[in-house]
Amino acid sequence: MNQHIQLIILLFSLFNIIEAQTVQYFDGSRSLKFINEQCELGPRFPGSTGHRNAIKYFTKHFKPLGDEFTIMEEVIAHPYETDSLRMSNIFTRFNVDAPRRILLMAHWDTRKIADKDPDEENRALPILGANDGASGVAVLMVLAEMFSQNPLINLGIDILLADGEDVGHAGDSENFGLGTREFAKHIPLPRPEAAICLDMVGDAELTLPIEQYSYIQAADLVLDIWDLAAELGFTQFQKKIGMPITDDHRVLYIHSGIPAIDIIDFDYPNKQKNYWHTLEDTPDKCSSESLSVVGTVVLNYIYRLDEAMR
């Protein structure tokens, strides 16, 4: 096992000897507000007006909060079109001098084509991406506010809003996660020792099995987070192995070696129907309660780990 992830797991095991842990409150309604605001910008695929406006929106939010803020511009050959693909990874650092760091990440771009829509006439249209895109970012927006208001003492946090995650076509896993692939080439030092990716976490019928690649890449980290969720009484985190999903966490691990996990509800809203990559991925399908569950677990994991590092 990577020695850095071993340290994180060792530190987390110390939580049991820290008395009178206070559960940190996470405002899911504020996250839902941020989902709505992102969707009001329209579809946010690279090259769109919504994409350009979203960069301004995220800059206004994150830049005053962190110790460092960077927009990482990436230009690569578009995998399907003749023009270049221009992406913007948005990167914020907290407690920047801390050598021990964790990366929190979510993709902020939305899909240009609703290729899974049941209506064939809709499949060339872009999606709003309320859950697939905006939800993970909305949780990170609230977390960033909390890290700014209640600074971490020992642990450093990096937040990455990754672009170009949803460029790929069905069956072509190599062209998903393009922004993360570029980010992996020049990760600022000190590098994070582990990463937690949030994707599709706003589903009103939230169920979170353990994504398969996450368990392969960082089993101990997965189990610690799912155990914490159980301790907090959140049955939405289901301690069973789900399907493997090629997401930003997988791309980051392959291209950087950083142990990375994904918190994701792919059955959106359930196993009988799915709004993923359809025009139905709209804010009314998302829930402040679901956002609160995920945000509370991640928030308490981070602050408990910070406390254990004293």
Features:
310 residues; alpha/beta; Aminopeptidase; 6-stranded mixed sheet; two-stranded parallel sheet; 8 strands
Explained architecture:
The protein is 37% helix and 17% strand. The strands form two sheets. The protein has a six-stranded mixed β-sheet with strand order 1-2-4-3-5-8, with helices on both faces. The protein has a two-stranded parallel sheet with strand order 6-7. It has a single domain, classed as Zn peptidases (Aminopeptidase). The longest helix is centred in the last third of the chain and has 21 residues, at 288-308. The protein contains eight helices and eight strands, in the order H-H-H-E-E-E-H-E-H-E-E-H-E-H-E-H. By secondary structure, the protein is of the alpha/beta class.
- The helix count comes to 8
Tell me how many strands there are: 8
Question: What is the helix content?
Answer: 25-40%
Instruction: Look at the structure and give the mean pLDDT.
Output: 94
Name of the CATH architecture? 3-Layer(aba) Sandwich
The fraction of residues in strands falls at 15-25%
Largest beta-sheet characterization:
6 strands, mixed
Which term fits the overall shape?
globular
End-to-end C-alpha gap: 23 Å
- Round the Cα radius of gyration to an integer and report it: 18 Å
Quaternary structure: single chain
Q: Which strands sit side by side, in order, in the main sheet?
A: 1-2-4-3-5-8
Unreliable sequence segments = 13-20
CATH homology group: Zn peptidases
CATH topology: Aminopeptidase
Task: Count the domains.
Answer: 1
CATH C-level name: Alpha Beta
Question: What string, H for helix and E for strand, traces the elements in order?
Answer: HHHEEEHEHEEHEHEH
What structural class do you assign from the helix and strand content?
alpha/beta
